[in-house]
Structure formats: C-alpha cells, structure tokens
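for the recovery benchmark. tokens below, seq after
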C-alpha cells in the first residue's frame, strides 16, 4: 500500500547544492512509493511571488514536485516563516495544494491539525508581533512594490539560517518542547484529532501521546535530513537516504 510522507525545513537557498540534490532524491523516492506528501513549511529559505515573477532558483526541486503532481500524488504545501507567501505559481504551474496553517487536514484517513509552528506555544512573543506585521496585506503590497532583486537581497539579509549553520542547541530544545506542549493541548481539546504535525523546531520528534494519537515533527534538512513516513496509519521517523 502506498505510503504518506512528511518533510519540512529544508531551507533551500541557505543550504549547499548537495542538500538540494539529496532532497530531489527524496522526492523521487516519494514518487516511487508514496500516495501523498505534506511539506510543512520552510522548504524554501525565501519564497515570494511577484505576480508573474518568481524566485529563479530551485529548478530541480520545482520540477520534481511538478512531476509528483503530474503523477497524481497529492502534494500539500503549508507555508512557514520563510515561505508563507506562495500562491498561484505553486498551485497552477507546479500543481501543489497551498494552505495556510494551522489547518485541519487528513493523514492516513484521520483528522490532522497541521502547522509549521512559528509563533505557537510559549515564548516567541517578539516573533508573533513580527509575524502579524509581515503577513498583513499592507506589508505584502509594500514588499511586492519593491524590485524583485531588492526584495530577494532584503530577505537574504534578514534570514539568519545561512549564517547560523546549526541552530543553537538550547534554543532548538526549548522550541521543540514548547511545540510538543502546544500539540498536547490541542489533542486534549480535540478528541477527534489523531495527529498534530509541526515543523519549525529543526528537531525530529515522534510521540504517541495517547494510543494511536500522535505528535509529529519531521525535523529539518540542515543537520538531520529527516522525514516521516506513514504506512497503514503507523508513522516512522527516518533519515535520508
């Protein structure tokens, strides 16, 4: 029976070209063995669509994603704090289903709450304020008014992914714990939920909070090359290759 896959936090554009090639290999694996793929944010270190103008990198990954969609494999893209501004190109030309998280989706035939994780849980107060600003309609209009080259340079200057390399271990641990506690709260509030899925923490984590009710964080591709595979309703946390 075909599997379902989850990946997040690849940060294409801030990782070596070898990482992008490995991720393409993973996407080809999904094409061979999967029926669906959930991309849970920060696949790109920066993504913004200026009408008919899109970022000019990541052709191999975009082609591999389009091949999955053309083959009838459902690919859902949930924006993260680096790539929340996807739109018609990813949907109409590549064939992805683009949704804004937190979103109620379905995994293995059961309800799943899916969120990248930025601004959720305790802490991150400063980012929550920033998030409300940069995702507001006026801010998007203002950014779209910039020349694309200037916009890309500005986004690269703001991003800390490439300069930080491996994330600070204590910060990663705190965010991982905060998201896990947030997820436990959502599972307690919603007895119908079978899954809560996050990314953002760059820390792979798989917890069966209650029998057949799961918290899933697929980790990242900066240091872990990790992903989640679900077969017959049972998730496994794996590393590529």
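predicted aa per position
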């Amino acid at each position: 029976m075909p599997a379902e896959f989850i990946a997040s936090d690849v940060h294409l554009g801030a990782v070596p070209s070898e990482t992008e090639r490995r991720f393409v290999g993973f996407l080809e694996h999904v094409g061979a063995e999967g029926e669906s793929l959930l991309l849970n944010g920060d696949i790109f270190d920066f993504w913004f669509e200026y009408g008919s103008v899109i970022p000019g990198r990541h052709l191999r990954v975009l082609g591999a994603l389009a091949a999955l969609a053309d083959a009838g494999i459902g690919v859902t893209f949930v924006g993260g704090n680096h790539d929340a501004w996807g739109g018609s190109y990813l949907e109409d030309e590549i064939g992805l289903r683009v949704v804004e998280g937190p979103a109620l989706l379905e995994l293995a035939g059961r309800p799943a709450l899916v969120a990248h994780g930025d601004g959720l849980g305790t802490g991150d107060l400063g980012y929550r304020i920033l998030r409300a600003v940069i995702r507001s309609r006026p801010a998007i209009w203002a950014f779209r008014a910039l020349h694309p080259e200037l916009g890309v340079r500005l986004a690269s200057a703001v991003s800390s992914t490439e300069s930080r390399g491996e994330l600070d271990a204590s910060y990663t641990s705190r965010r991982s714990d905060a998201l896990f506690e947030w997820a436990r709260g959502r599972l307690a509030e919603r007895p119908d939920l079978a899954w809560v899925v996050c990314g953002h923490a760059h820390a792979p984590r798989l917890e069966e909070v209650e029998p057949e009710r799961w918290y899933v964080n697929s980790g990242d591709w900066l240091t872990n090359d990790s992903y989640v595979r679900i077969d017959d309703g049972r998730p496994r946390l794996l590393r590529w290759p």
